[in-house]
Design brief:
The chain is an alpha+beta fold. It contains three helices and six strands.
Length: 171
């Protein structure tokens, strides 16, 4: 097995900061913050989360998907996306891939936010992609592997639960 190339310390710092900004932008519902870290297009494989799977999705469309009131944009949903132990590989001069243990906790509050309507926490592995764009590292995509969910994950999101057409793969 050939040795995999590792990012330099400076590259690792840059992409680690992007991973932090990604998680915090979701949890704070800060969609401009999210937009600011994205490559022009992103690859999304949330097939095990909400059936979303896209190749070369324009960054603005990704932000629109995430801030949708049927998904994380719902003001009655709180979340915390935690990344655990990680490994990193530099797959080319302009691409880095990270693999993180993950826990994504979600709670839906009843209107008035005085009682919890549902909670669901996903546990698994997050693979994240980064690209060097005009000399700056950018967040370029994600693939999730759900190992198991705690509680009633399917009841957290309203309506279609943020579920998108299973055949919505675009190029």
């Amino acid at each position: 097995m050939a040795a995999r190339q590792k990012p330099t310390f400076e590259e690792w710092l840059a992409v680690s900061e992007l991973a932090f900004e990604w998680a915090e932008s979701y949890d704070e519902k800060d969609w401009e913050r999210l937009r600011g870290i994205l490559a022009p297009t992103v690859t999304i494989d949330y097939a095990k989360v909400n059936n979303a799977k896209f190749l070369d999705l324009p960054a603005d469309e990704f932000v629109t998907m995430m801030k949708n009131p049927l998904f994380l944009g719902d003001s009655n949903i709180d979340s915390q996306h935690l990344l655990g132990l990680s490994k990193w590989e530099k797959t080319s001069a302009s691409e880095i891939v990270s693999h993180h243990q993950s826990r994504a906790a979600h709670m839906r509050w009843n209107d008035g936010r005085n009682t919890i309507a549902a909670k669901g926490h996903g546990h698994g592995l997050v693979t994240t992609f980064y690209k060097l764009v005009a000399g700056e590292w950018k967040w370029a995509g994600i693939k999730t592997k759900v190992r198991f969910n705690e509680y009633d994950f399917e009841d957290v999101f309203l309506g279609s639960a943020g579920k998108f057409d299973k055949n919505a793969v675009t190029t």
